[in-house]
Amino acid sequence: MIDALDIKITRAPGSKLSEVPIEKMMFGKNFSDHMFVADYIDGHWTNLEVKPYQPVMISPACSAIHYGQSIFEGIKAFRNLDTDEVKIFRPLENFRRFNNSARRMSMPDVPEEIFMEGMKRLIQVDKEWAPAKLDYSLYIRPFMFATDAFIGVKPSSTYKFIIILSPTGPYYPKPLRIFVEEKYVRAVEGGVGFAKNAGNYGAAMYPTAEAQRNGYDQVLWTDACEHKYVQECGTMNVFFLFGNTAVTPPLDSGTILAGVTRMSVIELLHEMGVEVEERNLSIQEVKDRYKKGELTEVFGTGTAAAILMVAELSDKELTMKFDEGKWKIAPEVKKKLDAIRQGSGEDKYGWLYNVD
Ligand SMILES: *Cc1c(COP(=O)(O)O)cnc(C)c1O
User: Fold this and answer.
1) Percent of the chain whose predicted confidence (pLDDT) is above 90
2) CB atoms < 10 A from the CB of 320, how many?
3) Looking at ligand 1, which residue's alpha carbon is closest to its atom 5?
4) Alpha-carbon distances of 194 from 34, 103, 117, 247, 276, rounded to whole Å
5) Pairing of strands 137-146, 70-72
6) pLDDT tens-place string over residues 214-259
7) Are the beta carbons of 254 and 193 closer than 8 angstroms?
8) C-beta of 207 in contact with ligand 1 (< 6 A)
9) Within its chain, how far is the Cα of 239 from the centroid?
10) What is the pLDDT of residues 118-174, one digit of tens each?
11) What is the pLDDT of residue 4?
12) Is 294 helix (H, G, I), strand (E, B) or coil?
């Protein structure tokens, strides 16, 4: 494709890559040498640049800090260990979701070519940061925030769109202990649960910390009206397997983040001949069918870990335990998804996006 965009490229004088040995690559802690930046001013995007990773100057009155117009995405790129190519997993889905979040937060859309071409150029410049090791990846964090220096409550007229990259090691999958949250809520119908806006995550920290003090890893959110129906978990969507049928909450209420991994897992389950029902699922049904021995597997899906098995699910009256050693479906889906993401399996759905 001929590049119609005027993206300035300013290279860092040297690389910090040698300071980050592969065994020290931790999710979200180390960042590559460059970042992509664009400014929204006077109704359009300008100053597109790949430049050395550096702090961002903002006014103390920066409206994102005061009122939370701030959204993000999480995407992964993988280096194919046979061909050495670096490919991104389904970034166009993240692009669409990013603009859904933007609209809900009264922020401007980022045009597809700025989002995609900015990401591609940045990864081309920092390609060496995509680790050449199985189960490693390059985490991509696009984000946008309001930059007006004005503390009146109204949508900002200026924004920054930035992409940073973080090389990431394997996520050692410890099966999760999950607490069914029936006091605090994450999302309500008509609210912002479907958006990846910063405030959703800050608001989840207190209930999550409380569950962690009691020995759990995460909470499973329930609906805000009755605390009856399952929503999702941390930064993961959830699936419940009853024999050969997988049930996952539907997206239509707007209280659930439409995970790209969720969408991909649904497709892989279909391919495996597993029935998938996107429907409301009550905690009561989960417990009743657990007691009858019908609930066979529970897992979470998200970009960070792909698929995480649930070892224990507790509400105030019942602890449900699962032995993932006996599971068939979740491990098979994980194997398939990992193979596609890492390039060792056939990409039959065209999910990988080439950076070169
Ligand atoms: C990002 C996220 C997910 C998972 O989405 P993926 O696109 O699969 O990474 C699920 N729930 C919440 C709340 C999230 O923020």
Assistant:
1) 93
2) 18
3) 259
4) 30, 11, 25, 19, 21
5) antiparallel
6) 999 999 999 999 999 999 998 999 999 999 999 999 999 999 999 9
7) yes
8) no
9) 16
10) 999 999 999 999 999 999 999 999 999 999 999 999 999 999 999 999 999 987 778
11) 66
12) coil
Query: What is the best residue among 176, 303, 307, 334 to mutate for testing ligand 1's pocket, by most ligand atoms within 8 Å of CB?
Result: 303
Cβ neighbours for 158, distance < 8 A, ≥ 6 positions apart: 39, 40, 41, 146, 147, 148
Tokens of 253: 């209420």
Residue 143 CB partners (closer than 8 Å, separation 6+):
70, 71, 72, 73, 161, 162, 163
Ligand 1 centre distance from Cα of residue 83 (Å): 29
Q: Which residue has the tokens 């990773």?
A: 53
Q: How far is CA 178 from CA 121, 156, 171, 224, 328, in A?
A: 40, 38, 18, 18, 21
User: Is the CB–ligand 1 distance for residue 336 below 6 Å?
Assistant: no
